[in-house]
């Protein structure tokens, strides 16, 4: 996940705090500002879920040496 979305989340948080301070915690504008923060956080979470995990050293070894005994896969 890029730092860009984290920076955008922080910017939206700061803006939400400012809006709520001016308009009041119970205002529609305050709620909308925090909704924007939540949407960005959901997008960041979605991006993390779609990241491909790095292969372990063992997985890299088996990719390079599929015939090795320790890399054999048996169907039961």
> Shape from CA axes?
rod-shaped
Distance between the termini: 38 Å
Strand residues, percent: under 5%
Helix/strand/pairing class, anyone?
mainly alpha
Number of domains: 1
Q: How would you state the average pLDDT, rounded?
A: 90
User: Rounded to an integer, what's the Rg over CA atoms?
Assistant: 23 Å
Count of DSSP H/I helices = 3
Annotation, overall tally of beta strands = 0
Supply database-style keywords.
0% strand; mainly alpha; 76 residues
Task: Describe this protein's structure.
The chain has one domain. The chain contains 3 helices and no strands. It has helices spanning 3-23, 28-50, 57-64. The chain is rod-shaped, with a radius of gyration of 23 Å. The model has no long low-confidence stretch (mean pLDDT 90).
């Amino acid at each position: 996940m890029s730092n860009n979305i984290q920076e955008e989340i922080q910017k939206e948080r700061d803006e939400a705090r400012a809006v709520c301070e001016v308009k009041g915690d119970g205002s529609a504008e305050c709620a909308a500002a925090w909704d924007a923060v939540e949407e960005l956080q959901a997008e960041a979470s979605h991006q993390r879920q779609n990241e491909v995990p790095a292969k372990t050293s063992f997985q890299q070894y088996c990719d390079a040496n599929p015939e090795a005994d320790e890399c054999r896969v048996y169907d039961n």
